Amino acid sequence: MAYASTGMSLDDPAILEDGAFVHFHPDGNELGLYGMVSHDTQFISKWGWELDGVLLEAAREDHTTYRFRYTVGTKGQISVLRRVQLLDGRNYRETVDIANHGADAGTVVLAWRIHTGFKGIFELREAAAGGGYHRDVALQTAEHRGIFSYHRQDSGIEVKTVIDAPDAEMSPDGDVLLCRHRIALAAGDACSVSIAAAFSYGVLPSSCILPSREEWREEFGLSGDRPQREAEAPFVRAAEDLRGMMLRTRYGIALAAGMPRFMNPFGRDQLLSALMLMPESPEQRWRTAVVEGILHFLAAHQGTEIRSYTPVSTSGEALPNVQPFIIETPGEIPHEVRYDEQSGMGLKDTWHPLGKRPFGRYYGTADTTPLFVATLGKYIAASQNMALLRELETPLRHALEWMSSREFAGLDAHGFITYEALPAYTPGGPLAHKSWKDAANAMVDAAGLPVTQAPDGTLRTARIATIEVQAYAYRAYREAANMLSLLDDEKMAAQCTLKADHLQKNVLSFFRTQDTAGKEIYAMAIAYPEGGAEPIVLNVHNSNAAQVIWTGIYGEGDTGRDNIRCIVDSVLSSAHLWSGWGIRSLGANEKGYDTLSSTAYHRGPVWPHETALTAMGFHRYGYHAEAEKLQNALRDLAEVLGGSLPELLSGQPRNGHAPQLLGTASRIQTWSASALLAVHGLASKET
């Protein structure tokens, strides 16, 4: 099943490197919907090539994410033997080898037709619905160079796409750049022709260094030796995918979330990936660099003020019944940071026809801040890196202040972090939920109703406490107590320990419930509808309660093992969470279960990262055989799909059937790649 909603298919070749990617159609000749994208902006939309006016078909030879080779058809006796594309975050280069196999000399014209509109990633996502904004792009040509340029309306910075082709003739054809190579070859001769594109977007280059692909594979014991390649192939591909998602920033290495729609840093995605990639020894210097880079990046973007945002339509008019909302609060760790023009307009108070979006620097989550503290604490405990702890002490304390705030974290009397859920997502507005299941219909009760919909069908807001946010906060307080002790702040360390104990007691008391059949489970959330209605316990079989077992929220030793027995049973039951390819986000017997529709996002599909986190939790409590079942499912899934694990897939039962992919999914997802490497590490520990 093609990824129709993202405009990409698993068969589409793509090159991925440092926040940039090139998306081709399967024939390798024309670009796909996304074209060449770097830092959330499409720098090239059309890149078609032809020989003597005839489009050339290509056969794909190389399936890595970094380098593609193509063998193409013959035009007379002169043929294109090989085409190699190379990409880094700011530059794309293409080399074509041409040979004359005939007995006579010959001349051909190899030409490229190139175009761009400097659209942002949101506009590309909405292209099918007619989204997009016309920009007055200038095109200048010189003898061997063509330059597309445009001044962004959010910053005034001039962005450019510079095309260079030695010995080629550049000329405009309307708003298209035509690049022609006239090639004369004697009989038996061959030559190479190259063309390059440089992307300029006004951001100072970072001195951050990325590991080579070989160095990155070695961090996970993936040598690539021929006898091991077949068994290691899925894990090698995961390492390749993750290496392609690395971003060079001034704060160190960060990770983009997913290709094609989320090629930018996210908070939650990076932190959960860091937990799965945590280095096991100082010798794993690149895993160390990634974890530290993520922590530095998120600390540098921590909220510093109360900032509100008013959505507007693309015509500049206020949207009906949409109130301003708070986008940033002091101490909060961001949900995402974007670089495209539309998102940049959301950071300004002035209106522009592009329409404002809040996602340039969007906070809007309840879980990233406690996850930041938990991840920092786990890393400090393993590395004893006191220099890093002192460097991030202020962000740590600000994050703890946010977690203790009734105003910002919605802290209630039970110690639960809560948030206000909205009935729907408004384009250009906030996400409906501030938990990881952020789709408007994600939080459903046993009757199958979203908590923001009353039984009579009317919409309402609701204040929600989800179990995974409380579990992250619990782990954060435990880790903070250890870090504060290292900083000789025993008073605050003791306060964090008390908060952790209080939170754990209340989670085990209020979230432990029964499903409609009377079986013990842990609720997905507790919701408090507006207007003083009775609290709603979402007593449905859910993945949230399973993926946080690693936090220790359920207790230690035999007590903890007994407490999670009901989760183990739910995870391994095909009637509830077990699909055969991983664990479903919502139980198959639940009335709200949906795994194939366009709105199924969080109501039944399998998310590989949750399966891996659950396996890690099972190992923590000694459920090794059960964990191995989850690990094997992810490995099998990767093998069947040819390597990369997508963002999500249908929760339909395996039962001998191939996995069903969903149109909403990213083709490559950082926490899915991290999930596969995490289960590879678990398997290595067992042997």
Write a structural description.
This protein is α+β, with helices and mostly antiparallel strands and 687 residues long. It contains 18 helices and 32 strands. Strands 7, 8, 9, 10, 11, 13, 14, 15 and 18 form a 9-stranded antiparallel sheet that branches. The protein has a 5-stranded antiparallel sheet with strand order 6-5-12-17-16, with no helix packed on it. It has a 4-stranded antiparallel sheet with strand order 1-2-3-4. The radius of gyration is 26 Å and the shape is globular. The protein starts with 13 loop residues before the first strand and ends with a helix.
How much helicity do the residues have?
25-40%
Give the terminus-to-terminus CA distance: 37 Å
Count of DSSP helices? 18
The total count of strands amounts to 32
Radius of gyration: 26 Å
The chain-level structural class is alpha+beta
- Proportion in β-strands: 15-25%
Mean pLDDT across residues = 88
Runs in which pLDDT lies below 50 for 5 or more consecutive residues are 1-5, 59-73
Largest sheet: 9 strands, antiparallel
How does the overall form come out from the CA principal axes? globular
What layout of secondary structure does this protein have?
Blueprint: E1 14-17, E2 20-24, E3 31-38, E4 41-44, E5 46-51, E6 54-55, E7 58-60, E8 68-72, E9 74-75, E10 78-87, E11 91-100, E12 106-115, H1 121-125, E13 138-141, E14 145-151, E15 158-164, E16 169-173, E17 176-185, E18 190-200, H2 213-218, H3 226-244, E19 246-249, E20 252-259, E21 262-265, H4 267-277, H5 285-300, E22 307-309, E23 325-328, E24 336-337, H6 341-345, E25 361-362, H7 368-383, H8 386-391, H9 393-403, H10 406-409, E26 419-421, E27 462-466, H11 467-486, H12 490-510, E28 512-514, E29 520-522, E30 525-529, E31 536-537, H13 544-547, H14 557-563, H15 565-571, H16 608-620, H17 624-640, E32 668-669, H18 670-686
Antiparallel strand pairs: 1-2, 2-3, 3-4, 5-6, 5-12, 7-8, 8-10, 9-10, 10-11, 11-18, 12-17, 13-14, 14-15, 15-18, 16-17, 19-20, 20-21, 20-32, 22-23, 24-25, 26-27, 27-30, 28-29, 30-31
